[in-house]
Design brief:
- The complex is a heterodimer.
- Chain A is an alpha/beta fold.
- Chain A has twelve helices and 16 strands.
- Chain A folds into two domains: 129 residues, Roll (Urease, subunit C, domain 1); 354 residues, TIM Barrel.
- In chain A, strands 1, 2, 3, 4, 5, 14, 15 and 16 form an eight-stranded mixed sheet that branches.
- Chain B is of the alpha/beta class.
- Chain B is built from twelve helices and 18 strands.
- In chain B, the strands form three sheets. In chain B, strands 1, 2, 3, 4, 5, 16, 17 and 18 form an eight-stranded mixed sheet that branches.
- In chain B, strand 1 and strand 2 form a beta hairpin.
- In chain B, helix 3 runs parallel beside helix 6.
- The longest helix of chain B has 20 residues.
- Chain B is globular.
- The chains are: A alpha/beta, B alpha/beta.
- Chains A and B meet through helix 2 and helix 10 of A and helix 8, helix 9, helix 10 and helix 12 of B.
Amino acid sequence: MFSRRAFRLLSPLLLALPACASSSTSAPPSSPAQAEAPPPDVPFPWEARPSTAAGIETPAAASPPVLIRNATLWLATGKTIPRGSILLRDGKIAQVAEGDITPPEGARVIDAAGKFVTPGIIDTHSHLGVYPMPDTVAHSDGNEASSPVTPDVQTVDGFWPQDPAIERAVAGGVTTLQILPGSANLIGGRAVTLKLRPALSPRQMHFPGAPDGLKMACGENPKRTYGNGRHAAPGTRMGNLAMQRKAFLDAKKHEDDWQRHRITEANRIREDQKKRAAYEAEVETRKKQQAQCQDDPYFPSCAEWQKDWDKPLDPPKPSDPGAAPPRDPAKETLIGAMRGSVLVHIHCYRADDMLAMLSLADEVGFQVRSFHHALEAYKIRDILVKKNVSISTWADWWGFKMEAYDGIPENIALLQESGALPIVHTDSPEGIQRMNQEASKALASGRRAGMTLTDEDAIRWLTYNPAWALGIEKRVGTLEVGKDADVVLWDRHPFSVYASAEEVWIDGATVHQKGKKRPPWSDFELGQDTGRPTTLLPGGAP
Amino acid sequence: MTNPRNTFVSSLFVLTTVLATTGAFAQPRPAQAPAPAAAKSAEPAAAAPMAIVGGRVHTGTGEILEDATILVEKGLVQKIGKGLAVPPGVTTIDAKGAIVTPGFVDALTSIGLVEISLEDSTHDDDRGGKDPIRAAFRAADGYNPASTVVGITRAEGVTSAAVVPLGGVFSGQSAWADLDGDTRESALAQGPLALHVHLDGSSLGGDRGGPAAALLRAREVFDDARTFQKNRAAWERNQSRPFAASRLDLEAVGDALAGRVPVVFHVERASDILAAVALAKEFGLRPVIAGGAEAWKIAPRLAESKTPVIVNPLEPGPTSFHTLGMRDDNAALLYAAGVPVVITTADTHNARKLRQVAGNAVRAGLPHAAAIAAITRAPAEALGLGAKYGTLAPGKVANLVVWSGDPLEIASRPLAVVIRGKKVDLANRQSALFTRYRKLPIAR
């Protein structure tokens, strides 16, 4: 059923693309009314995300209402409803109630006694699709490591929607991902945010209205890739900063050139308009005079006026437009980051590296939305709170490289306690299958260290906080009426190691049912003995 | 990002450091350093008698004793049972309301051999060089008992680890480390634990060639080692044909041929696992399969030969063309078929995740008791140390953990960790960092 839907999705997509393209490029420059060149803040056609265009069918349209009753609802607003009901209808959360809800006609009713409902999990840091399974040379599409500064590349152009890992992430309760470029580059390119439904193109998976991310990296990876690997720049942390600074300053110059061009053009057009207005006023004046003199040929001024009428009166020639600076997708991506229309995500481990990035951000003028990995965030959590930067990190990874040596399992708990915005991310096709356990570990570590933390705090590390980091918190991240029906039903307390996502909905449509046998999403797995679990053995949990 | 998983099952860290290698066991052994003492070091005189009182004890055999007392002396379990009298003056650990298990064992780690994965200068797990035959290389010679990984790992209830060399087709011999002790002698239970052979195709380094090429090299070396053992005198008189491996390598392989140590075959694909089992039969080896992503497909065959399989239950899917059949109920299916199942993290820095990993096997259908056994008794038995480790019974090394609750559940935590009869400190470098940064700004 999914593949057929995907085919139906395809045709409006193809229609939508040229429509977007025409909005910014169709005006002939010589026409005075349209002489103003498109400024860089007009999106490129390639920036348009077709899912935002009208007429794209969503799976929700075909799904009947779903009522889940008697469940523990973790709203991720800070509130838990111990025995409540939630209604999903038309792709949205239609109702959330303590106690019961009367099922609407045609609704599927699920009795979820002893079970838990949470918002769908959101991973701010994934390379699914750009480093897909199986790991082959040909599948390496996540690092444009041909140059350390590539803001113009975007993961939506590299994402393979047939990655078998996608369906497995959904089975873990994940509904939304940010697909980032890798960290080989200082500025790795644009990240795209996707909803995990089966599709033939990432363009059909785009989270409607989600802004793009910009991936940057500091520390070891860029200097290892270029310096150690190729004797090219950057070879040091000094080089990292210098090249990042230069990229932003170049982008600013580009923006200044455009600003100057816009002012010059505006002045020129204003001058032309003045001349045109003077001409039109003169034409009007002569018309009035001629009418007057026709009515009354002996009107005293007519002789005087007549002299002017003989003077030639030609319409003013429009001036030539100035040459516009060239468009530059790379620089304009960075301008977007400085304006806040593209959200900045920085791979950074050490406290000093993060502080260096915050200095750069202040210096050139951008806001860091989230530091990723950030194993030493606990050392500077007071500053991160002040700067309103979220922290995307693991529960317990450490030691895999020098800058990961000081990772501690209480990182997330300390951030939470300080009022920062911690996020559990994975950066891993394995970890993404059990993000609930990762949050659980971070929670357990904090409690073991004597901190007062609640389940309500911890569920936000997987839902609301990442939604904020991706700029989609008004659409998803909590169980609130009107939000997208991206919802997970867990078979037991979600922070138990034995818990599984029993059912997962995206936009109100079922995308996963535990133990249900059905064909794989990925074409890759068809006709191969890949051992997809068909039925689970009876669980052995005590 | 590096993927900490698969370190032992597919990737190959190449070290340029060439380390001195020594042979083992075979006579004569003029160039050989003595293997770290095993039996002696497991009975440290320093450990005072101790009693763990009142816990719900999982003995590791599948048996659960309620309200039991464990008496520990000279580093060993002396007695275990209900209502045992605790001699006066013996240190007691109150385990009332708590759960006691044997110390957990991770069968596939680089603990003590690798401090930081991406820093070659901190590695001592690979003989290096181009020759893929490194059978004589001993992890015991590289083990650093002062590694920060040791204290961080045991704080989560892992008391022992097989520390395993990497690189080449024959990567060398692993060692059994108890995660306490200041010296190799006081930490390592035994010198050569197992011989490690990589048949997964990545083992030939830069050379082209997959599992078939690795298998060819393996067969050649086993055959040469057999000939070498039989005609030792001729070799000493320089009246022998050339061999495909050095003398020390052939001696190390000889230990496996004689059945003194098991051979751990690192291999994933079902057909390659069967090839490894056949090779083991051909040469009379004691095979153990490590990785074994597709082992479930041939579970009855493995059960028939009682071949243990070391698996990581966090199986993310078809990660390579050698692991297309990877599935998360591998351990459950193997167990149901009667295969001895060992659970590993195949990790070093996060070998502490072992209980979470075992919990996931339970989630995928493995019975809870079998999961506990898979990280206690099963690894000890698979690696030939079942007589000393893996269960709580009189005479066994007193490695045990007192847990606040179900040890596989994330919210539980170790209340006490005992290694060789000594209650060990759970503080480590990470807890020191936490303490320093508990309040900001820090004082120092």
